[in-house]
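As described in the Methods, two query proteins were run sequentially through the folding procedure within a single session, without resetting any intermediate state between them. The first query and its resulting structure tokens are shown here.
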Amino acid sequence: MAAPPKRHRFKLKWVFLVVSITIAVVMVATLFVTFKFSYSQEGPHTVLGGGRIVMIGTTGPKQAEFSNPYTASWGMMPAREWIWRPRYRSGNISGIGWFSLAVPLWCPLLPTALVTVWLFRRDRRHPPGHCHGCGYDLTGNTTGRCPECGAVNSTTHTI
């Protein structure tokens, strides 16, 4: 039996919160330290630094000649410019094609943070005696309907 929608939303909001915080921490950390990752000598490698993630690779038949000597490592970052939008560059050096794709870390942070805020606001609870829809204080309301938003409430208080 599947969990009710509120249970899924409860788990999802905490997952999005952890992801948002992780991206924010990595973004700040990469302003000071560069992380380089490579999975093979000939394949693309990834650089995480300067508040962005960059994938660098080669294309074409001479790809094997353009080897990457790095394995997973880290080091202090030299001065780099800050980029505000994703950037794609490519070129050709001695018959070896190359490309780089740079994505600032605020690009994935913004949507995850917005979804996190939306999920937390959607699950906020109102105190007893308030409308379940808008939070309006229903003290003294005998109609059973919220005068602010029109929602039908089962908990109304009479004087």
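Immediately afterward, the second query was submitted; its sequence and tokens are:
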Amino acid sequence: MTRRIFVFVFFLVTLGALRAEETPNNAEGVPPLLYDALAKIAENFDRWAYTETRQVTDDKGKVEEDTVVRFDPSQPYAEQYTPIRIKGKPPTERQLKEYRKRGVKRADRVAKDEAAGREPGSHIPQFGVNGGTTSIDLAHAVVVDETAGSITYEVPLRNDGRATIPVEKFRLLARVNRERRAFENIALKVRSGFRVKLVLKVKSGEANIDFGVIDPKHAPALTSISGDATASVMFMTFGGSFDLKRAEFKRVKPYSERFGVKIGPLKALDF
């Protein structure tokens, strides 16, 4: 159950806030600084190879997941994910095959985008909760804090589908560096408790995405994601935390551009 609640919060922030490769082509109403930051994520999508370490712990501090994977988007798709450690142990042959399949599925998504003629920014960012979907309302982002070096925006969420998502229970904040016109941090916070499928009650939760300068010649890259959450079922309360770090960055040319032709980017981030 610990992982269930944590993954819930984690996917909210990653699939909602970070699908910046889907920045709308029409920038009308979107704050220019925020729009430029989103565009830079799109421009640099799949141009960094890195080693990613993920850990999930329960509310007692016990490690439930410990995975290290090398990701290199310049390699053939079946070779883009190289697991180094899974649950604290060297990967088995079966696990190696699973990661190869993951790369092949990634290739399928790229091919579908190319066939459909999709360009960067063809869709509004979305995420799903409890059978419904919600989008990030970029055009109604407002400034909630300013310093000499950065501006923080609060970005509203809105319901899309038939099911109702309690968007009023979440607060999405994005801090943008004035000089670089690039993200420094994206944070998602649970304002107040709510129920999922009438059984699980989310009591609290927060997730943060941090960006760092790898090379001054390029926009900052995502370097870490961390989060924690607590929930309850009946009279039982539990929680968990998640920590993802990326290191050993290397600038690369995407495999999709091996023939010198740039196609539309993927429509999901893989972690």
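The helical segments are 2-17, 32-43, 93-116. We note this only descriptively and draw no conclusion about the first query from it.
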